[in-house]
Design brief:
The protein is mainly alpha-helical and 148 residues long. It is built from 8 helices and no strands.
């Protein structure tokens, strides 16, 4: 209930400031852009918000949490597709980083610190398995099987 009120208040503030002016602001959040997209029927505003959100998705420093939020809160198919692809890319990249870590230490898993690093890497892969695509799941299972 409070998130609905928060959204309404944010939307009122954005409208008062001006939707186009808000969209063009360099520090507008992805949450505000998705809120504008959900609640506007003006084609110009919708197009500007869509372009800005697409630009945000394409930035290299966007987080998995932001992408997940965008996927849950937008109905635009282009944005959903781009966010899904970027999320899969980030997941693949994380899987590869874990694989590299495992190969880096190879069979020389000696000492307390390397044991912790190995366990963290394996736990990270297990977490990523839940949201991975079928291809990524196969890769994760292969890594986990070979890590033990």
């Amino acid at each position: 209930m409070s998130s609905i009120l928060d959204d309404q208040l944010r939307l009122m503030a954005l409208k008062q400031y001006g939707l186009i002016k808000s969209i063009k602001a360099p520090d507008i959040s992805d949450a505000d852009l998705t809120l504008i997209l959900k609640n506007t029927e003006n084609e110009t505003i919708e197009q500007l918000a869509t372009e800005k959100l697409i630009k945000s998705i394409k930035t290299p420093d966007i987080s998995e949490a932001d992408l997940t939020f965008i996927l849950k809160n937008t109905e635009n198919e282009t944005i959903k597709q781009l966010a899904t692809e970027k999320l899969q890319h980030l997941n693949s990249q994380a899987i590869q980083n874990n694989l590299n870590l495992i190969h880096k230490f190879g069979d020389n898993w000696k000492g307390w610190a390397t044991s912790i690093a190995r366990r963290q890497s394996i736990n990270e892969l297990k977490k990523r398995y839940k949201n991975a695509s079928p291809d990524e799941k196969v890769k994760i299972l292969d890594i986990l099987y070979n890590a033990n």
